[in-house]
Amino acid sequence: MADKFVYFFGEGKAEGTGTMKEILGGKGAGLAEMTNAGVPVPPGFTITTEVCKYYYENGGKLSPEIEQEIAEALARLEKVQGKWLGDAEDPLLISVRSGAKFSMPGMMDSILNLGMNDRSVVGIARRTANRRFAFDAYRRFIQMFGNVVLGIEKEVFEHALSALKESRKVPYDTDLTAEDWENLVGSFKGLVRKEVGTDFPQDPKIQLALARNAVFKSWMNPRAITYRRLNDIPEDLGTAVTVQAMVFGNLGETSGTGVGFTRSPATGKKELYGEFLMNAQGEDVVSGVRTPRPIADLKIVLPAVYQQLVEITQNLENHYRDVQDFEFTIQNGKLFMLQTRNGKRTGHAAVKIACDMVGEGLITKEEALLRVEPQTLDQLLHPIFDPKQREKFKVVAKGLPASPGAAAGQVVFTADEAVAWVSKGKRVLLVRMETAPDDIHGMNVAQGVLTATGGMTSHAAVVGRQMGKPAVVGCIALKFDSKEKLFTVNEKDIKEGDFVSIDGATGEVMLADVPTAPSEVLQIIAGTLEPKASEIYQNFAKLLSWAEETKKLGVRANADIPKDAKMAFAFGAQGIGLCRTEHMFFAEDRLPIVQKMILADNPKDREKALKKLLPLQREDFYGLFKEMKGYPVTIRTLDPPLHEFLPKREELLVEIAKLEAKGTKGKRAGGKRKLAKLQKLLSRVEELHEFNPMLGLRGCRLGITYPEITRMQAQAIFEAASKLAKQGGKVRPEVMIPLVGHVKELVLQKAIVDEVAEETMAKSGVKVDYSVGTMIEVPRGAITADEIAKEARFFSFGTNDLTQMTFAFSRDDAGKFIHVYVAQGILEKDPFQTLDRAGVGTLVRMGVEKGRKTRPDLKVGICGEHGGDPASIEFCHQVGLDYVSCSPYRVPIARLAAAQAVLKEKKEHRKVGD
Questions:
Q1: The sheet that has 508-510: what strands, in order across it?
Q2: Is the Cβ–Cβ distance between 260 and 338 less than 8 Å?
Q3: What is the 3-state secondary structure (H, E, C) of 262-293?
Q4: Burial level of 615, CB count in 10 A (0-12/13-18/19+)?
Q5: pLDDT tens digit string along 694-744?
Q6: Residue 365 CB neighbours (<10 A)
Q7: CATH ID of 551-640+698-906, from 3.20.20.60, 3.30.450.90, 3.40.630.30, 3.40.190.10
């Protein structure tokens, strides 16, 4: 056990520091740092994440030592404030908030105004001379405590509040009187008694213990679990609990509350960005129930407070050297800072902020590279609405542009409906009055989010930006009818299933499925937009140029056609790491020829089909070589599971049955011939039928069984290479033999390739620098890599198949149970998405070490799906691979991830040195 479980902050000094996020959580560390820096922070204490872990390990109980330390911290807080928890005349009121190491906005629970009871509410009303405030604060506490601690659904309280406003014929909470709030407190206490069978707890010490435990429990609530899974946050970190003296933004017209960012988290623009509400508590701003005012208006309402806020937040950004997400409360004209943390941001904003901060001298290029999550670069490639088509569609409403991007889909009104519709292959747009943390699973699958209320820092806005989902919030033109599952805009009813489009960059809403166009980055890549016309592209290119200076791993692309190769090259690919030649055969004009080649039961017919394929393959390879401009092109010889090319046995049986039912006599002679042909075809299909095609006649086994196939492909490769070389072009073909598990398989196939290469080069009079290697995707290949390296000039790890064979998981069927394995903690992540380091990674490491022991200059790469996954790329860097290969659109992600792998390694070495 740790020596200290509670850290106090207050009176200008904190026991913790901003570097202690591991145990204080982001919130606690931020409060400690601000306190030490002299920022006005209400005092309090943080119960560490270690206590959370202890809580779970000991059946929801804390040790007497921990309880004593918490009690001592509370006594110290009471002394500092000169108020006591539970005092009837002038009680100390506190907030109890969650705060993990990594920011998880809205996913866990907080409770405000703790310490109120039937006695203290009277004392507060008397002391503040504001009975309305006192009973409003009490009803808020009962509502939050009832939901978070006692497990009562929010709607139970909301329904009672709505009924009260309806009976009083007022639209807003602020229109209710002190008497209204006092009556509602009585109603809320009655609801608690009805829902849980006991009275609302009146002892503040019991309230605190229950609230603290509820925050610990919220670490494992469904939305927090979902959020961690989506953001790769470890489950064993736990949350800290911060207990802090309350300050009130709802004491009158000189009080208020707000949240903000030091720069726009949507675009990265350098401006104070946020919102506030006067005479309100923090939940009112972020819940989306009331639409707040932009933070710039605070300059008009309370100019001195606004100026102080600007200075404090700018100092915080300079101190942390990153964008700060902050919360504040103004109590009777006095500013208090409640939180600061590094702000979540969109991919667009992350790239701009990183580049701008380097330009401002605030951070280094290395720091800028580490500030951008590689996966978020994908957001810069998201489509926008087609400018040529957009004018045809009428804008019916406009909300706040919370998260950029174009989104169109069929309207659904709940998160569960979103998941259900998407599972049926639908594109959906989640439309809500406002979103709540419980909606995260629906937001994750939706194309975008549209809300009627809420501001730029509401839940929908914050989470939308973090997910890279287009979001429009606070669209007050939407009028909801939840019972009928529709909303009305401009007197038109929009029902579930209707198409709606939103532009998260402008806030515009259109009642149609508006066509999209490529993003600015893709337009520049395609040559339809000038680079200087796009600041987004300029920052994108600048960041990747810094990555190029830093990374050690090469980045290639998996590409099978020239168009994909061209795109990959434009994104900075340094070659093709995998050309799947079987993918070239699916075209309508080629498939029949391939089928004839496979179905041929003699070499003569097979050669005949191969002759027709030769010129087609040659042209394919020529196009790839040309687009890669001298960078290596790794071509995998044919590796088809045969069932992908063969006619379907079941369909043949149905067709034969139909012909037999019609009869084949007299005028049906043509039918008789067709029947005979189909029966012969069926017979051949059944001869070739495999019970497990993925482990059947594929890879090098196909080339060994039918060497003429490998010969044709080698001829096409070297004829294409010779043609380009004759024209003065640079070309570097790498011929990769797939599915090798025994060195003799490679010996046989390599002999054919070398023989054809010599013949072709002699005939053309051109010498081409080429190499022959293999794809390590069979466990035996990794285990015997030292033998295989005697014949192979390079290895490329095919981690899709290697994962499949190592786990004995069918990658086509694993989706049915992998999510269960992840949910139950059997696997940390899906091994087909992120490389399994302990098992598959061990085979990769073994293959590299054994291979280079035999051939020190062995070139080694990876071409499975893991080549575009940042965590897997980091592993590839660590084990000494030369390159990773991924899909063209993931090349920028891989380049940044490769640079980050270098920087993280340097960071670790510095730690060890210290």
A1: 395-398, 508-510, 499-503, 406-412, 428-432, 448-451, 471-473, 400-403
A2: no
A3: CCCCCCCCCCCEEEEEECCCHHHHHCCCCCCE
A4: exposed
A5: 787 789 998 999 899 899 999 999 999 999 999 999 999 999 999 999 999
A6: 17
A7: 3.20.20.60
554-558 vs 94-100, strand pairing mode: unpaired
**How far is it, in rounded angstroms, from Cα 125 to Cα 129?**
6
Q: Which of 243, 207, 238 is nearest to 220 (CA)?
A: 238
* CATH class given for the domain over 382-517: alpha beta
Q: 236 in helix, strand or coil? A: coil
**Boundaries of every domain in the chain:** 6-247, 248-345, 382-517, 551-640+698-906, 649-688
Q: Which two tokens stand for residue 78?
A: 């009471």
> What confidence score (pLDDT) does residue 61 get?
93
pTM over 0.85: no
**Three-class SS of residue 105?**
coil
Residue in this structure with the two tokens 């804390």, named with its chain if needed: 62
| Residue matched to tokens 């667009």 | 348
pLDDT tens, 187-212?
Answer: 999 999 999 999 999 999 999 999 99
CATH topology for 6-247?
A: Dna Ligase; domain 1 (3.30.1490)
- Amino acid sitting at position 345: R
User: Residue 587's pLDDT band (boundaries 50, 70, 90)?
Assistant: low
Q: Which among 29, 10, 165 has a CA at the least distance from the CA of 94? A: 10
Rounded-to-integer distance, Cα 352 and Cα 534, Å: 12
Q: Distances from the Cα of 834 to the Cαs of 80, 142, 247, 286, in angstroms?
A: 50, 45, 45, 34
200 three-state secondary structure: coil
Show the tokens assigned to 331.
């109590």
Transcribe 588-647 into DSSP letters. Answer: TTTHHHHHHHHH-SSHHHHHHHHHHHHHHHHHHHHHHHHHHTTSEEEEEPP---GGGTSP
Which residues, other chains included, contact 662 with Cβ-Cβ below 8 Å and sequence gap of 6+? 668, 671
Q: Give CA 802 to chain center in angstroms.
A: 25
Average pLDDT across the chain, whole number: 89
Q: Please choose, from the candidates 212, 175, 217, 247, the residue with its C-alpha nearest in 3D space to the C-alpha of residue 5.
A: 212
Rounded distance between C-alpha atoms, residue 293 and residue 301, angstroms: 11
Write the DSSP assignment of 875-910 as a string of letters: HHHHTT-SEEEE-GGGHHHHHHHHHHHHHHHHHHHH
Phi, psi of 673 (to 5 degrees): -65, -40
Residue 666 has pLDDT above 50, yes or no: no
In angstroms, the CA 465 to CA 468 distance is: 5
Cβ(124)–Cβ(134) below 8 Å: yes
Strands of 324-331's sheet in order across = 293-294, 273-278, 256-261, 324-331, 334-342
Q: Which amino acid is at 158?
A: E
Print burial letters for 110-149: b (CB count within 10 Å at least 16), e (below 16). Answer: bbbbbbbbeebbbbbbeebebbbbbbbbbbbbbbbbbbbb
**Partners of 796 in the beta sheet?**
775, 861
Element at 111 (helix H, strand E): strand 111-114
CB-based contact 26:325 (threshold 8 Å): no
Reduce the DSSP state of residue 736 to 3 states and report it.
Answer: strand
Which of 200-214, 284-298, 380-394, 636-650 has maximum average pLDDT?
200-214
- Whole-angstrom distance, CA of residue 213 vs CA of residue 125: 30
Q: Catalytic positions, please? A: 459, 863
Encode 597-610: b = buried (16+ Cβ within 10 Å), e = exposed.
bbbbeeeeebeebb
Residue 212 three-state SS? helix
Class (C level, CATH) for 248-345: alpha beta
Residue 369's SS3 state is helix
**DSSP alpha helix (H) spans, 103-172:** 120-128, 131-148, 154-168
